[in-house]
Amino acid sequence: MTLSLILSMSLFALAASLSPGPVNLISLSSSARYGIKIGLTFVTGASLGFIVLFLLIGFGLNYFIDVLPWLTQVLQWLGIAFLLYLSYQLFSDNGELSSDANNKAPSFMTGAIMQWVNPKAWLASISGIAAYIPNAEAFKVVTFASVYLPICWLSLGVWVGIGIFLGQYFQSPAKMRLLNKSLALLLAGSCFLILI
């Protein structure tokens, strides 16, 4: 495996991970609302959930999807339903900054599950593997995943940093509600863009 291929994979991973999407918006929102610990916990779950998905697709799930093409539609609709549910939760949040609110904070498992129902994650996995490892050699799949994991985590961490920065300016419940409603609308909007 050449250094130029690894560099190319890295650039793909950076572009796919850093670009706005549902997981990025929840990373921003959770860190703005609940702080860096909750944000990074969510990001760690999302990064590991994505890599498990990536490896499964790399090791043969893509062939399963080729045999049952309707499965992609089912996964897409389940993903959209889950993302709309998260949008509703975010939109209806009262903005209170009490410690009891941490019970509703996005968790490690929320991050992991979110990647499995996130159409962007499926698209990034399938297109990345198809472009860089069309014959899905095991060593190359593992190498790509090894490159992707830290880039994904750091990219989502950037969104956590933005959330921490914004959170300093949204310390009142009214301002937090405004931020949450704005992010909820963006998240819901991303679902409709998936359908186009």
Record keyword descriptors for this entry:
transmembrane, mainly alpha, about 200 residues, 8 helices, globular
Task: Write the SSE topology.
Elements: H1 3-18, H2 22-34, H3 36-67, H4 70-92, H5 108-116, H6 119-132, H7 138-167, H8 173-195
Give a quick rundown of the structure:
The chain has 196 residues and is an all-alpha fold.
Which strand-content bin applies to the residues? under 5%
Pattern of helices and strands: HHHHHHHH
* Spans of at least 5 consecutive residues with low confidence: none
Bulk shape: globular
DSSP E strands, number? 0
> What's the tally of helices?
8
Overall average residue pLDDT: 83
Main sheet properties: none
What helical percentage do the residues reach?
Answer: over 70%
Question: Helix/strand/pairing class, anyone?
Answer: mainly alpha
Q: Tell me the radius of gyration.
A: 17 Å
